[in-house]
Every structure is written in structure tokens, then in C-alpha cells.
Amino acid sequence: MIYNLQRLIRAKKCFVEVIIRNPRAIGIFDSGAGGLSVLKAVNQVMPSENIIYVADTLHSPYGTRSQGFIESRVLEIAEFLVKQNVKAIVVACNTATAAAINHIRNLYPIPIIGLEPAIKPALEMTKVKTIGVLATQATLESEKYLNLKSQLQGDNQIIEKASSYFVELVEAAKSIDKQEEARIADELAGFIGQVDCLVLGCTHYPFLTTTIRKIVGEKVKIFESALPVANELARRIKDQQNASGSGEIQYYSSDPELAKITFNNLLEQEVAVSLFDGNAKS
Known about the structure:
Blueprint: H1 2-20, E1 26-30, H2 36-45, E2 51-55, H3 67-83, E3 88-91, H4 94-107, E4 112-113, H5 119-125, E5 130-135, H6 137-141, H7 143-152, E6 157-162, H8 165-171, H9 178-188, E7 197-200, H10 209-216, E8 221-223, H11 226-236, E9 249-253, H12 256-267, E10 273-275
Parallel strand pairs: 1-2, 1-3, 2-9, 3-4, 5-6, 5-7, 7-8, 9-10
Helix pairs in contact: 2-11, 3-4, 9-10
């Protein structure tokens, strides 16, 4: 009798374990393909997790859009993901995080992880008390970024550069020729010889890390947010992770044909991209 009771207790423990291992997908979205850098990090940290990725390709980049427009798009995409019954959402876009993450956190009772430029670790690492931040105009002008900068800067100098060109370059899925490299060098010129830490404040930029490093030099430490965000997501859903599985990934875009070309190039594999049919006024 005691033996059978022990077996029942063990069986119940196993059953509970199965229940808390949650196969519901993680939702990740960005204005375009930049968030794929975050998707790759999430897949690296939690390879068994199912993921739904949404790119608002038709309206990319967000960096030059108005606050109201960005908010409307973020709300539209978040609603779509919640309807897909995701267990968490990653706003894989610094601009969208700054503009609207508080809105969707107030609407939905699931973990919602955003991005912010990694200026804290950069400021902790700098030896020359000067760091660079490369981001979109909307991010650099956002209240969220300005508050973060005010809290952390101290007596350090932060050199900022807004660049939508890097976003356009990644979205176009172009190979980097000498002409493109020269243009990238022009964009980075203000950092050369001035900083020893450079923050990539947009999820598109890590796809250009090899070229950026070549231009700024090996001694400059480069910071981006994809892996820290993936680790934070894993911590937030540690009791809901998928125990096993192949980690199915579904891709959506407001312009599937264009997104497919970019995704295939950046992911170096063929993927199917379905239509995300969200509506917003431009």
C-alpha cells in the first residue's frame, strides 16, 4: 500500500512537471528584419521554444516615424500576437520599446520584454570615460532613452549618432561593397579615436558588426542587446519553458514578398513568410 502511494506521488509530480512545461509560442516583433538578431539569440538560449516572429516590413523603419504612428503599429502587432496565445512578447526594436512598451504592458498580463541601448555596461567598461551610441533618431529623442542617459551618464561623455541608413542597408539585404563600406565609415566617423565602447542601439545594427568592427578597430568594445534580452526572457518564463521539441518558428510580415528576400539572406536559409494584415494610417 505504501509502495503504491509512493508511485502515485511520483506520477503526480511528473504530471505537474508536464503541465508547467509550456509549448505556447513566444512572440517577437520588430519594424523589419532587425529583430531576427534577437530571434537568433532566443533560439540559441532556448532552442526548444516555439516562436512567432512579426516584421512590419511595409512600414519600416520606425526610426523616422511619429510617436503616434509607432504606438498604433505596436498595439496592432501586440494584439495579433496575444490572439495567437503567446506566453510572452519581446519587443525586438529599441524605437518601438521607447515609444509604446508601457502601453502594451498595461493591456496584457504576460511577460513583455523590451530593448534599450546597452549604455550601462558600456559606461561601466569605458576607460576613456567616453562611449558612443549608434541608434535611430526616434530612440535618441525618446523620453525613455533620455531618462536612462540622465540616470547613468555621470561625468562620462556620450557621443550619439542617429542612423537610418544602417537599417535601410540591412533591410535591402545588400552585400557590403567598397562604396557601402565608405558610407558606413562616414556614419561612424564621429566615434573614431574618441570612444573605446560603442553601443549598437538598434537590432538591425548587429548584422553589420563585422564591417563596423573593421572600421572602428578591434580595441573598441561593441555592445548590443540581443543576448541579454534572451537571457532575461528565459529568466521571466523559467517555469513556462517548453521541455522538448524542435522549436518551430513562424514568420509573418506586412510585406511577405520583400521580407522573404531579406530573411533568407540574413538567416542564410529559405523560410516561409505569411501575411500579417494589420491596419494603420501612415
